[in-house]
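Table S2 (text version). Query chain:
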Amino acid sequence: MKNFTLIIFLILFGKANFINAQPNCAAGTATETLNTTNAKITLSSTGIWAFDPSGSTSYEWPYNEDIPIEGPGLISTGNFWMGGYDDGLNLKMAGKLYGQGDNNGFWPGPIHSNTLTTNNEDCANWDKLFKVTQSEIESFLADYNDNNQLDDPIPANILGWPAMNNAHFFDIHGFDLPVTDSGLAPFYDMDGNNIYDPMAGDYPQIKCADQAVWWVFNDIGNTSFLNIDPIGVEVQILAYAYESASSNIANTSFYDIKTIHRGEEALNDVYMGLWIDPNLGCPYDDYLGVVPEENLVYVYNADAVDGQSGLSCQGISTYGQEPPMVGIKMLRGPLDQFGGDIDTISSFIALPDGSTPVPPNPTQAFEYYRVMSGLRADGAPYLNPNNEITKFLYPGNPANEDQWSMCSEGASISDQRFFLSVGPIDYISPGTTNLMTFSVTVQPQPSMPCPGVTDLINDTNLHLWTFTNPGDYCDMMVGTNAVLTKDIGLSVFPNPASDFINFQLSEEETFATIRLYRMDGQLVTKEENLKNYNVRIFRKDLATGTYVYQIQTKTGASVSGKIILE
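Corresponding structure-token output:
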């Protein structure tokens, strides 16, 4: 009995020491702005979109810098979430609501990969976001490319970019980069040595965006999130946007979300996704919908006039008689346990503000996990109007009164929140890196009330096209002539082709992957784990038409182009 008591004491004492050893990081407060052609977006060092308790919007659209008064916005706040069970069936969650009290689950900075820890000093140092512009990069490249050396001072945003092994980072920011094995901010590596060195021509890789912001946060800096065990996940985000005369690009921002499972235990039945509190102008008359097959969630106004007679909404700016729609689209999903792409969302659940008691809103971690998995907070399934189980609420086109939407249902108006989830991923081992990409697109002045969703689908499909062809971002989206890839001696022939296509590189290069896409962005052919400098792809059953190829080489070069099949 004494031995048993001693064992229990040691377990409890060890557990207490573990808890006491956790850092007590302060909540991150830093923000940075990202501007599209028409929007001002406020980003948070410990989430995605910042939350302002005073009611200020984090996604002002339209934005005019010459007007000092804040206009209406689209999003109050929103964050990445992740949850799963360890092998002992203990639930672990990483997420953040409004960042106050026990709903704040993210803390600034990375997790050191050698010690799997962070500390208060690291959290304080990394309470910042790193911004760079395409104009800075173009000036830098012009200086370097004229004689392969730099004659002008390097912009601080480039010299201090938080990329792997940057020897200049401390001089700019006053603290060191972390020990990590999973990469930091993306960069173009001129000599392929995995060391970021602007002196050698390296520069931030921001997909030719006009602006980009990178930052990193973790879920172990404190222990208060919904009183649940943290996962030990590091989250790195690159948010970027483009200046463009094209309306759909001018009204869009993009988000690459990279996760690294730094915990020591594997996770099972994992869900990832976004929790968002949208405020489309006045937050009290928003409707929500989803197009599951397009991985698209959208927000629109419940009637033709936003707000109370279109004038005010408890002091919040409204869109009046011109409410827009906003769509959030998953462009890339995470990898499953076998390394395959998860290319579809698994659920969309709307959560009213709590004024509606049924179904109940989640308050505890396990209830939030249920909602992420497509269930009600009480564990019951959702039912559609035909009394069938569903994980997608309001998938109908609002313009079609015969389809299930909040408009056709005549749903009561309230301040909405929602979860957009992907999963379950059966197994994520320690050290696993994953990547998801989302876009946020505004469609100005849809036909109201009960707007159709077809135009928004078409606009966001254009983003899917450019996303799946990253080598074409410069030419197709912003028209810049910046060179992002090496000369790899690529030949593609015959073109037009009938039966097969030959891809050939210089003998110094070898292919890694070759992908073919339809013009709507649909992947039709994927060749991976290649090791040759010449590859032949047979047409098989591909239809006549124009296709786009995307090539990546073993040295990291990426090139895209078009091929015609006759």
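Notes on Table S2: The chain has two domains: 31-127+214-470, 485-565. The first helix runs from residue 2 to 21.
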